[in-house]
Amino acid sequence: xxxxxxxxxxxxxxxxxxxxxxxxxxxxxxxxxxxxxxxxxxxxxxxxxxxxxxxxxxxxxxxxxxxxxxxxxxxxxxxxxxxxxxxxxxxxxxxxxxxxxxxxxxxxxxxxxxxxxxxxxxxxxxxxxxxxxxxxxxxxxxxxxxxxxxxxxxxxxxxxxxxxxxxxxxxxxxxxxxxxxx
Length: 182
Hints:
With 182 residues, this protein is of the alpha+beta class. The chain has one domain (5-132): 3-Layer(aba) Sandwich (Aminopeptidase), CATH 3.40.630.30. The protein is built from 6 helices and 8 strands. It has helices at 21-30, 32-35, 49-64, 111-125, 141-144, 159-164; strands at residues 5-8, 11-15, 69-75, 78-89, 95-102, 131-137, 166-167, 173-178. A hairpin with a 2-residue loop joins strand 1 and strand 2. Belongs to the acetyltransferase family. RimJ subfamily. Residues 139-182 are annotated as: Disordered. Keywords: Acyltransferase, Ribonucleoprotein, Ribosomal protein, Transferase. Residues 11-182 form the N-acetyltransferase domain.
């Protein structure tokens, strides 16, 4: 099980709880414009407390099954980011994917790097994963910075980006990094 980790004064990474729904919905509303270029298209319902509560419940069922860990980046009582360790594969592969975002008002503090470091340590030491992979849009260099094994910079639209990347929901090229190499 993922343990709560302190990553900065008053800032922790912990598993999301059902009681976080209202605060998480507010965090998504507060960051709606900030996240729009990177996130899938969202309908209004996504930003509601009800949707967030139901999503948390689904994710906690996956956590109980050992399939993923929905994590909150918390400053005091405010959720200032979300990290998902998802798609955990056991057997010889022992891997997972990592996705994340940080509140627009807390950028530039090194919180994503510290959280990624804490999550990677927990995944390696407690969950015994061999590989964690994170994907970003090629032009989202800010989200690539916290990744220890950052992907090579690919020019958006380049032949290399099309070959080495894949397309997301908006037709943008996505690239990835293996954080815990196999």
